[in-house]
Design a protein that fits this description.
By secondary structure, the chain is mainly beta. Helix content is 6%, strand content 57%.
Protein backbone atom coordinates (compact mmCIF):
# COMPACT_ATOMS: atom_id res chain seq x y z
CA UNK A 1 0.00 0.00 0.00
CA UNK A 2 2.84 2.40 0.90
CA UNK A 3 4.53 1.63 -2.42
CA UNK A 4 1.31 2.42 -4.33
CA UNK A 5 0.98 5.80 -2.54
CA UNK A 6 4.58 6.73 -3.33
CA UNK A 7 4.13 5.81 -7.00
CA UNK A 8 0.92 7.88 -7.19
CA UNK A 9 2.65 10.91 -5.67
CA UNK A 10 5.53 10.55 -8.10
CA UNK A 11 3.05 10.39 -10.96
CA UNK A 12 1.33 13.63 -9.82
CA UNK A 13 4.69 15.39 -9.51
CA UNK A 14 5.67 14.26 -13.00
CA UNK A 15 2.41 15.62 -14.44
CA UNK A 16 2.81 19.01 -12.75
CA UNK A 17 6.48 19.59 -13.45
CA UNK A 18 6.47 18.28 -17.00
CA UNK A 19 4.60 21.47 -18.07
CA UNK A 20 7.18 24.23 -18.55
CA UNK A 21 4.65 26.99 -19.32
CA UNK A 22 1.05 25.90 -19.02
CA UNK A 23 -1.51 23.18 -19.27
CA UNK A 24 -4.34 23.84 -21.72
CA UNK A 25 -7.68 22.14 -21.20
CA UNK A 26 -9.03 22.04 -24.75
CA UNK A 27 -12.52 21.49 -26.13
CA UNK A 28 -14.08 20.77 -29.50
CA UNK A 29 -16.88 22.54 -31.32
CA UNK A 30 -20.37 21.34 -30.52
CA UNK A 31 -23.34 21.67 -32.87
CA UNK A 32 -26.42 23.02 -31.08
CA UNK A 33 -29.68 22.85 -33.00
CA UNK A 34 -31.61 26.01 -32.19
CA UNK A 35 -35.05 24.49 -31.78
CA UNK A 36 -37.73 27.04 -32.62
CA UNK A 37 -35.58 29.25 -34.87
CA UNK A 38 -36.99 29.67 -38.36
CA UNK A 39 -34.21 31.13 -40.55
CA UNK A 40 -36.37 31.68 -43.64
CA UNK A 41 -36.69 35.35 -44.70
CA UNK A 42 -34.74 36.55 -41.69
CA UNK A 43 -31.55 38.47 -41.05
CA UNK A 44 -29.76 38.32 -37.69
CA UNK A 45 -27.47 41.06 -36.37
CA UNK A 46 -26.69 40.43 -32.69
CA UNK A 47 -26.35 37.42 -30.40
CA UNK A 48 -26.05 37.68 -26.62
CA UNK A 49 -26.00 35.48 -23.53
CA UNK A 50 -26.49 37.92 -20.64
CA UNK A 51 -26.56 34.94 -18.27
CA UNK A 52 -25.67 31.30 -18.87
CA UNK A 53 -29.30 30.16 -19.13
CA UNK A 54 -30.57 33.14 -21.13
CA UNK A 55 -29.89 33.77 -24.82
CA UNK A 56 -31.03 36.53 -27.18
CA UNK A 57 -30.69 36.85 -30.95
CA UNK A 58 -31.88 40.06 -32.58
CA UNK A 59 -32.78 40.43 -36.25
CA UNK A 60 -35.37 41.28 -38.89
CA UNK A 61 -38.03 39.38 -40.77
CA UNK A 62 -39.19 40.42 -44.22
CA UNK A 63 -41.31 39.34 -47.16
CA UNK A 64 -39.83 38.46 -50.54
CA UNK A 65 -41.60 41.48 -52.00
CA UNK A 66 -40.08 43.85 -49.43
CA UNK A 67 -36.61 42.55 -50.16
CA UNK A 68 -36.99 42.77 -53.95
CA UNK A 69 -38.33 46.32 -53.72
CA UNK A 70 -35.75 47.22 -51.03
CA UNK A 71 -38.67 48.36 -48.91
CA UNK A 72 -36.69 48.23 -45.67
CA UNK A 73 -39.38 50.23 -43.86
CA UNK A 74 -41.49 47.08 -44.08
CA UNK A 75 -38.97 44.98 -42.14
CA UNK A 76 -40.20 43.64 -38.81
CA UNK A 77 -37.93 43.86 -35.77
CA UNK A 78 -37.88 40.38 -34.24
CA UNK A 79 -35.81 38.57 -31.65
CA UNK A 80 -35.46 35.04 -30.35
CA UNK A 81 -35.37 34.33 -26.61
CA UNK A 82 -34.01 31.23 -24.84
CA UNK A 83 -34.11 30.42 -21.12
CA UNK A 84 -32.53 26.96 -21.30
CA UNK A 85 -29.00 27.80 -22.42
CA UNK A 86 -29.69 28.09 -26.15
CA UNK A 87 -31.42 24.75 -26.75
CA UNK A 88 -34.94 26.10 -27.39
CA UNK A 89 -35.93 29.52 -28.69
CA UNK A 90 -39.15 31.55 -28.84
CA UNK A 91 -39.71 34.23 -31.51
CA UNK A 92 -40.97 37.63 -30.38
CA UNK A 93 -41.59 40.91 -32.18
CA UNK A 94 -41.13 44.61 -31.48
CA UNK A 95 -42.96 46.19 -34.41
CA UNK A 96 -41.42 47.63 -37.57
CA UNK A 97 -37.80 48.71 -37.89
CA UNK A 98 -34.25 47.40 -37.52
CA UNK A 99 -32.15 46.95 -34.39
CA UNK A 100 -29.01 49.11 -34.33
CA UNK A 101 -27.32 48.29 -31.01
CA UNK A 102 -27.82 46.77 -27.58
CA UNK A 103 -26.09 46.33 -24.23
CA UNK A 104 -26.57 44.14 -21.16
CA UNK A 105 -25.80 44.64 -17.48
CA UNK A 106 -26.77 42.02 -14.90
CA UNK A 107 -30.42 41.18 -15.69
CA UNK A 108 -30.91 44.42 -17.69
CA UNK A 109 -31.03 44.53 -21.48
CA UNK A 110 -31.20 47.83 -23.38
CA UNK A 111 -32.07 47.52 -27.06
CA UNK A 112 -32.05 50.26 -29.73
CA UNK A 113 -34.12 50.25 -32.90
CA UNK A 114 -34.08 52.54 -35.93
CA UNK A 115 -37.22 53.46 -37.85
CA UNK A 116 -36.77 54.72 -41.39
CA UNK A 117 -38.92 57.71 -42.27
CA UNK A 118 -40.52 58.78 -45.53
CA UNK A 119 -41.62 62.00 -47.24
CA UNK A 120 -43.86 62.78 -44.28
CA UNK A 121 -42.15 61.33 -41.20
CA UNK A 122 -38.41 61.72 -40.37
CA UNK A 123 -36.18 58.89 -39.21
CA UNK A 124 -36.53 58.01 -35.55
CA UNK A 125 -35.04 55.74 -32.89
CA UNK A 126 -36.45 53.80 -29.95
CA UNK A 127 -34.77 52.34 -26.86
CA UNK A 128 -36.38 49.34 -25.18
CA UNK A 129 -35.62 48.15 -21.65
CA UNK A 130 -35.86 44.70 -20.07
CA UNK A 131 -35.21 43.72 -16.46
CA UNK A 132 -35.72 39.98 -17.00
CA UNK A 133 -32.83 39.10 -19.37
CA UNK A 134 -34.90 40.03 -22.44
CA UNK A 135 -37.97 37.90 -21.89
CA UNK A 136 -40.09 41.06 -22.17
CA UNK A 137 -39.29 44.63 -23.24
CA UNK A 138 -40.91 48.01 -22.75
CA UNK A 139 -40.14 51.30 -24.50
CA UNK A 140 -38.12 53.74 -22.38
CA UNK A 141 -36.92 56.41 -24.86
CA UNK A 142 -37.85 57.83 -28.25
CA UNK A 143 -35.81 60.12 -30.56
CA UNK A 144 -36.87 62.00 -33.69
CA UNK A 145 -34.38 62.41 -36.54
CA UNK A 146 -31.67 60.53 -34.63
CA UNK A 147 -29.76 57.28 -35.26
CA UNK A 148 -28.25 55.41 -32.28
CA UNK A 149 -24.96 53.69 -32.92
CA UNK A 150 -24.07 52.61 -29.35
CA UNK A 151 -25.79 52.47 -25.99
CA UNK A 152 -23.99 52.23 -22.64
CA UNK A 153 -25.61 51.60 -19.25
CA UNK A 154 -24.30 52.24 -15.75
CA UNK A 155 -27.58 51.46 -13.98
CA UNK A 156 -31.30 51.17 -14.72
CA UNK A 157 -31.58 54.98 -14.66
CA UNK A 158 -28.12 56.10 -15.92
CA UNK A 159 -27.45 55.54 -19.62
CA UNK A 160 -25.51 57.07 -22.52
CA UNK A 161 -25.94 56.87 -26.29
CA UNK A 162 -23.70 57.71 -29.23
CA UNK A 163 -25.76 58.80 -32.21
CA UNK A 164 -26.09 61.11 -35.17
CA UNK A 165 -28.69 63.58 -36.33
CA UNK A 166 -29.14 63.90 -40.07
CA UNK A 167 -26.02 63.96 -42.24
CA UNK A 168 -23.67 65.84 -39.89
CA UNK A 169 -20.00 64.81 -39.96
CA UNK A 170 -19.69 63.99 -36.25
CA UNK A 171 -21.25 61.76 -33.61
CA UNK A 172 -23.00 63.14 -30.55
CA UNK A 173 -22.97 61.61 -27.09
CA UNK A 174 -26.05 62.09 -24.88
CA UNK A 175 -26.77 61.18 -21.26
CA UNK A 176 -29.88 60.34 -19.28
CA UNK A 177 -30.22 59.93 -15.51
CA UNK A 178 -33.94 59.18 -15.37
CA UNK A 179 -34.15 55.96 -17.38
CA UNK A 180 -34.39 57.65 -20.79
CA UNK A 181 -37.13 60.22 -20.11
CA UNK A 182 -34.85 63.24 -20.63
CA UNK A 183 -31.49 63.60 -22.38
CA UNK A 184 -28.57 66.04 -22.23
CA UNK A 185 -25.86 66.55 -24.89
CA UNK A 186 -22.34 65.92 -23.55
CA UNK A 187 -20.14 66.51 -26.59
CA UNK A 188 -19.14 65.68 -30.15
CA UNK A 189 -17.01 62.72 -31.25
CA UNK A 190 -14.98 62.10 -34.40
CA UNK A 191 -16.93 60.93 -37.42
CA UNK A 192 -14.59 57.93 -37.97
CA UNK A 193 -14.64 56.70 -34.37
CA UNK A 194 -14.05 52.98 -33.87
CA UNK A 195 -14.61 50.53 -31.04
CA UNK A 196 -16.12 52.88 -28.42
CA UNK A 197 -16.14 51.50 -24.87
CA UNK A 198 -17.15 52.88 -21.48
CA UNK A 199 -14.57 52.84 -18.68
CA UNK A 200 -15.68 54.31 -15.36
CA UNK A 201 -17.22 57.65 -16.38
CA UNK A 202 -15.36 58.00 -19.67
CA UNK A 203 -15.97 56.93 -23.25
CA UNK A 204 -12.81 55.76 -25.05
CA UNK A 205 -12.55 55.20 -28.79
CA UNK A 206 -10.05 54.88 -31.66
CA UNK A 207 -9.74 57.39 -34.48
CA UNK A 208 -7.33 58.51 -37.20
CA UNK A 209 -6.20 62.00 -38.23
CA UNK A 210 -3.46 63.07 -40.67
CA UNK A 211 -2.35 59.42 -41.05
CA UNK A 212 -1.84 59.13 -37.30
CA UNK A 213 -3.86 56.87 -35.02
CA UNK A 214 -5.16 58.01 -31.66
CA UNK A 215 -7.07 56.74 -28.69
CA UNK A 216 -9.36 59.46 -27.37
CA UNK A 217 -11.22 59.84 -24.11
CA UNK A 218 -14.23 62.02 -23.35
CA UNK A 219 -15.30 62.57 -19.77
CA UNK A 220 -18.97 61.80 -19.21
CA UNK A 221 -18.95 64.27 -16.32
CA UNK A 222 -17.24 67.34 -17.78
CA UNK A 223 -17.26 66.60 -21.53
CA UNK A 224 -13.49 67.18 -21.64
CA UNK A 225 -11.76 65.43 -24.56
CA UNK A 226 -8.17 64.16 -24.39
CA UNK A 227 -6.05 61.97 -26.67
CA UNK A 228 -2.95 59.77 -26.83
CA UNK A 229 -1.23 58.92 -30.12
CA UNK A 230 -0.82 55.21 -30.82
CA UNK A 231 2.65 53.78 -31.62
CA UNK A 232 3.90 54.74 -35.07
CA UNK A 233 4.10 51.04 -36.04
CA UNK A 234 0.30 50.97 -36.22
CA UNK A 235 -1.09 52.10 -39.56
CA UNK A 236 -4.62 50.81 -38.88
CA UNK A 237 -6.34 50.43 -35.51
CA UNK A 238 -9.28 48.09 -34.89
CA UNK A 239 -10.24 47.41 -31.29
CA UNK A 240 -9.72 48.73 -27.79
CA UNK A 241 -10.85 46.90 -24.68
CA UNK A 242 -10.33 47.37 -20.96
CA UNK A 243 -9.32 44.69 -18.50
CA UNK A 244 -7.93 44.88 -14.94
CA UNK A 245 -7.33 48.65 -15.18
CA UNK A 246 -5.31 48.26 -18.40
CA UNK A 247 -6.20 49.02 -22.02
CA UNK A 248 -5.45 46.61 -24.88
CA UNK A 249 -5.39 47.99 -28.44
CA UNK A 250 -5.22 45.95 -31.65
CA UNK A 251 -3.80 47.35 -34.88
CA UNK A 252 -1.89 46.32 -37.98
CA UNK A 253 0.94 47.43 -40.22
CA UNK A 254 2.64 45.87 -43.27
CA UNK A 255 1.13 42.42 -42.84
CA UNK A 256 1.58 42.23 -39.08
CA UNK A 257 -1.04 42.33 -36.36
CA UNK A 258 -0.10 44.05 -33.11
CA UNK A 259 -1.69 44.12 -29.67
CA UNK A 260 -0.42 46.86 -27.39
CA UNK A 261 -1.04 47.28 -23.69
CA UNK A 262 -1.46 50.88 -22.52
CA UNK A 263 -0.33 51.60 -18.96
CA UNK A 264 -0.68 55.29 -18.13
CA UNK A 265 0.54 57.00 -21.29
CA UNK A 266 3.06 54.27 -22.16
CA UNK A 267 2.53 51.49 -24.70
CA UNK A 268 3.99 48.01 -24.25
CA UNK A 269 3.92 45.51 -27.10
CA UNK A 270 1.80 42.65 -25.79
CA UNK A 271 1.73 40.41 -28.87
CA UNK A 272 2.73 40.48 -32.53
CA UNK A 273 2.27 37.93 -35.29
CA UNK A 274 2.44 37.74 -39.05
CA UNK A 275 -0.98 38.01 -40.63
CA UNK A 276 -0.64 38.81 -44.31
CA UNK A 277 -3.94 37.23 -45.34
CA UNK A 278 -5.81 37.59 -42.04
CA UNK A 279 -8.11 40.35 -40.87
CA UNK A 280 -9.38 40.94 -37.32
CA UNK A 281 -13.04 40.37 -36.50
CA UNK A 282 -13.16 40.56 -32.71
CA UNK A 283 -11.03 40.82 -29.55
CA UNK A 284 -12.31 39.69 -26.16
CA UNK A 285 -10.59 39.52 -22.76
CA UNK A 286 -12.10 37.66 -19.82
CA UNK A 287 -11.00 35.40 -16.97
CA UNK A 288 -7.31 36.41 -17.47
CA UNK A 289 -7.40 35.12 -21.06
CA UNK A 290 -7.54 36.86 -24.44
CA UNK A 291 -9.54 35.66 -27.45
CA UNK A 292 -9.27 36.79 -31.08
CA UNK A 293 -11.47 35.91 -34.03
CA UNK A 294 -9.53 36.32 -37.28
CA UNK A 295 -10.76 35.84 -40.82
CA UNK A 296 -8.65 34.69 -43.76
CA UNK A 297 -9.49 35.16 -47.42
CA UNK A 298 -8.65 32.28 -49.73
CA UNK A 299 -9.68 30.83 -53.08
CA UNK A 300 -12.93 29.39 -51.71
CA UNK A 301 -14.04 32.44 -49.74
CA UNK A 302 -13.37 33.24 -46.08
CA UNK A 303 -12.43 30.97 -43.19
CA UNK A 304 -12.35 31.97 -39.53
CA UNK A 305 -10.14 30.93 -36.63
CA UNK A 306 -10.27 31.42 -32.88
CA UNK A 307 -6.99 32.43 -31.24
CA UNK A 308 -6.73 32.20 -27.46
CA UNK A 309 -4.16 32.31 -24.69
CA UNK A 310 -3.69 33.25 -21.07
CA UNK A 311 -2.63 36.87 -20.58
CA UNK A 312 0.61 35.79 -18.91
CA UNK A 313 1.49 33.18 -21.56
CA UNK A 314 3.40 33.62 -24.81
CA UNK A 315 1.93 31.01 -27.16
CA UNK A 316 -1.51 31.05 -28.80
CA UNK A 317 -3.92 28.15 -29.13
CA UNK A 318 -5.49 28.24 -32.61
CA UNK A 319 -8.76 26.51 -33.51
CA UNK A 320 -10.53 26.57 -36.87
CA UNK A 321 -14.14 27.75 -36.71
CA UNK A 322 -16.24 25.12 -38.53
CA UNK A 323 -18.51 27.53 -40.39
CA UNK A 324 -17.94 30.27 -42.96
CA UNK A 325 -21.16 31.92 -41.73
CA UNK A 326 -20.18 32.39 -38.09
CA UNK A 327 -22.41 35.43 -37.52
CA UNK A 328 -23.66 36.72 -35.26
CA UNK A 329 -21.48 35.37 -32.46
CA UNK A 330 -21.29 35.92 -28.72
CA UNK A 331 -19.26 35.02 -25.65
CA UNK A 332 -21.24 33.57 -22.76
CA UNK A 333 -19.83 32.99 -19.29
CA UNK A 334 -17.96 29.85 -20.34
CA UNK A 335 -18.32 29.42 -24.11
CA UNK A 336 -18.31 31.10 -27.50
CA UNK A 337 -21.40 30.75 -29.68
CA UNK A 338 -21.75 31.41 -33.40
CA UNK A 339 -24.85 31.23 -35.56
CA UNK A 340 -24.90 29.46 -38.92
CA UNK A 341 -27.35 30.17 -41.72
CA UNK A 342 -29.14 26.83 -41.39
CA UNK A 343 -30.69 27.59 -37.99
CA UNK A 344 -28.04 25.97 -35.85
CA UNK A 345 -25.21 27.18 -33.61
CA UNK A 346 -21.61 26.18 -33.16
CA UNK A 347 -20.52 26.26 -29.52
CA UNK A 348 -17.08 25.87 -27.98
CA UNK A 349 -16.25 25.84 -24.30
CA UNK A 350 -13.61 28.47 -23.59
CA UNK A 351 -10.13 27.18 -22.87
CA UNK A 352 -8.92 26.98 -19.29
CA UNK A 353 -5.28 28.05 -19.03
CA UNK A 354 -3.66 26.68 -15.88
CA UNK A 355 -0.22 28.07 -14.99
CA UNK A 356 2.08 25.34 -13.79
CA UNK A 357 4.23 25.43 -10.65
CA UNK A 358 7.41 25.22 -12.72
CA UNK A 359 8.62 28.71 -13.83
Amino acid sequence: MLCMKINFLLFLMAVVFSCSNSTVMNSKWEVVKGEGIDPENKLFYFLSFPQKDYGLMFGSSYSDESLLKKAFTNFNAIYYFSNDGGLNWIEKGLGKGKFSSYTTKNNYVFLCKELKGDEVKPDSAVIYFSNNYGETFKECAFFIDFYIRNVFVKSESEMYVIGKQGNVNYWMIKSSFDGGKTWTDIGKLDNDLQSPIIVDHNILYLTKSNNKNFIKKISLISGTLSEVQLPSQISNSYFVTSYANNLFIMGSSEGNLFIYKLIGNHFIEFSKFLSIDKFPVHMEIRHDSIYLILGERNSIGVTYSLYSKGLSLSSWDVTSIPSSNFSPFAFSESAIWGYSLDGQFYKKTLLSFVISANP
